[in-house]
Automatic annotation (TrEMBL):
One of its GO terms (cellular component) is membrane. It catalyses: a 1-acyl-sn-glycero-3-phosphate + an acyl-CoA = a 1,2-diacyl-sn-glycero-3-phosphate + CoA. CDD domains: LPLAT_AGPAT-like. It is an enzyme of class 2 (transferase). One of its GO terms (biological process) is phosphatidic acid biosynthetic process. Keywords: Acyltransferase, Lipid biosynthesis, Lipid metabolism, Membrane, Phospholipid biosynthesis, Phospholipid metabolism, Transferase, Transmembrane, Transmembrane helix. This is 1-acyl-sn-glycerol-3-phosphate acyltransferase. Belongs to the 1-acyl-sn-glycerol-3-phosphate acyltransferase family. Its EC number is 2.3.1.51. The chain crosses the membrane at residues 20-41. InterPro entries: AGP_acyltrans (IPR004552), Plipid/glycerol_acylTrfase (IPR002123). Residues 92-209 form the Phospholipid/glycerol acyltransferase domain. The HXXXXD motif is essential for acyltransferase activity and may constitute the binding site for the phosphate moiety of the glycerol-3-phosphate.
Amino acid sequence: MLVKAPFFLYNRTDSEVKKMIRFIIVALTVIGFLVFSAGYLHKMKKLGRTDQEKMERESLRVVKKVFRFILKVSGVSVTVKGIENVPAGQPVLYVGNHRSYFDILVGYTTVPDLLGFVAKKEMKKYPFLSDWMANVNCLFLDRKNLKEGLKTILEGIEKVKRGVSIWIFPEGTRNRGDNILELLPFKEGSLKIAEKSGCPVVPVAITGTAEVFEKHLPFIKPAHVTIEFGEPFIIKELPPEERKFVGAYTRKQIIRMLEKEQHGLSGNQN
């Protein structure tokens, strides 16, 4: 018996069909996970009342497993460089360029310890998703409300003090430009978490994630992603002029790494 293909696969090439199927699998994975994990979220909520760190580590283990599956079915391979630059045994502020939703998947599956991303506050309106984000230490930033933004910074400082690293995208949104070297301006206030807590800043350069999804919506295409961790620095140890504009300073470090990657000058780790 012949089975008709879904209408959205009509008149597609074999390559496009494969890309669309990847998108469907990823979408079903995300939706299925969020729907069927409601009971598990309740269990984690109860655990969090008695052992916050255990709850966070268990939630992170589950999220990493789901993210690794999504990367695998998407056909994403990842090369990690400079992981030896990440200070061992202490929380840091990761500062990265932002090209894709897949930046977050690559970040969570690469960094070894507790980690939380700073996300826009609009993500809180999505049930289950926002619960999982909170469980893995995400912070929700209101970019239009200065007072609420300061509260988020204070939350980030408290997380760092108890051993949780934070990852921020100082461009403020995904950069949709074609040139990976043309980063949006970094918001200077975005590095306050490191400035106030004294934790090291680790610049992170990511290439290849936009090629997975954003450059050819709604298809998901196999791609090679490179993530490089730069040399850490302490804000208060920078020269006065660079300390005054630490966002611009960090942006230059990331662009330098992206330039090396573009010209094949970076060393490989994985």
